[in-house]
Amino acid sequence: MSDKKWLLVVLVLSGVFLFLFARFAVDAQAIKGLVRHLHGEEESGKRPFHVILIEQQQDHPYWKMVEQGALDAAKLYGMSLEYHGPIRNSMEDQIELLDKAIAAKVDGIIVQGLNDNKFTPVINKAVDLGIPVLTVDTDSPTSKRLTYVGTDNFEAGKRLGHKVVQATGASATIGVIIGSDTAESQLLRLEGLKSVVERFPDMQIVVVGVSDISRMEAIVQAEMMLRDYPQINTMVGTSALDAVGILQARENLGRNDVAIFGFDDMTDTMQSISKGDIVATLVQNPYLMGYDSVRLLNDYYMGRELPKEHFTKIEVIDRDNVQTGVKTP
């Protein structure tokens, strides 16, 4: 075969190869576009930001509301959100989950900063690696976190303290149950409460116990307090399940003379206020904490400056406003 014929054959085969290669490339891009569409990604190839919420405890009623707020905001802003927490309240397990999120190179972390000293180094590690971190519900104020989203816990303790003063006529012997003796949020609430009570000579906090944010442990602690300090006539709980635990202990011991004050708007708490079994509760807004955390993270991705702290609404609910007070989805 002549050189010209060989050249013609080579040119034809090259053209066919180039045509098939181009067709393959087009088809591959189409398939990639379909996959992105099925996963809710933009045709531009940009994937949604992958954000992790690390909560205090799985399936806790309070944190379920935080989850829902975060999920609703993530859907609105096109983010991929997952949430994890220890089966039982454990600071060490939360820190381990935080380390795992950093290792996974997620795009953002929302975490409860339970203890400033322990959480700050891990939060700083995430930020130094380029992962933005927001603290929710409880802050790590000395860390490099972008912002804190949640209750002004010292102010919340003060607000509840003023309600205790008002309801007891500034005369009370008080037992307090806090959710944790290592969580900054709980300690700040206790300090806020003390800052009000100590102004009145006929008011005294005689004992403080820890429920480990467990209703059963709140019952145990409350019964122990009422047996060891029979002079107690007022009890205050600073985490979501404390007040209903105290109420159960009061019923178990037949101590109907004890006035109960609590935190958060769990269904049992609100029903007990309606019936007059619990005097009042300080209501936070966990749904908005979750929602605003994701919203502010989106602001950061958009290049907007975030506030150092973003406090969500609090309100004291008693029998007079239990039907019209703060409601969280």
Entry keywords:
329 residues, Rossmann fold, 49% helix, alpha/beta, six-stranded parallel beta sheet, 17% strand, elongated, six-stranded mixed beta sheet
Mind describing the biggest β-sheet? 6 strands, parallel
Residue-averaged pLDDT = 88
The CATH homologous superfamily of the largest domain is called: Response regulator
Query: Which stretches of 5+ consecutive residues score pLDDT under 50?
Result: 24-44
Description:
The structure is a single chain. By secondary structure, the chain is α/β, with parallel strands linked by helices. The chain has 3 domains: 1-46, no CATH class; 50-151 and 286-314, Response regulator (Rossmann fold, 3-Layer(aba) Sandwich); 153-283, Rossmann fold (3-Layer(aba) Sandwich). Helices cover 49% and strands 17% of the residues. The protein contains 10 helices and 12 strands. It has helices at 3-38, 61-77, 91-103, 116-128, 153-168, 184-197, 215-228, 242-253, 267-275, 286-301; strands at 50-54, 80-84, 108-111, 133-136, 148-150, 172-178, 203-210, 234-237, 259-263, 280-283, 309-311, 315-318. The strands form 2 sheets. Strands 2-1-3-4-5-11 form a 6-stranded parallel β-sheet, sandwiched between helices. Helix 3 runs parallel beside helix 4 (116-128), helix 5 (153-168) runs parallel beside helix 6 (184-197) and helix 7 (215-228) packs across helix 8 (242-253). The longest helix is centred in the N-terminal third of the chain and has 36 residues, at 3-38. The chain is elongated and about 60 Å long. The N and C termini lie far apart (83 Å). The model is unreliable at 24-44 (pLDDT under 50).
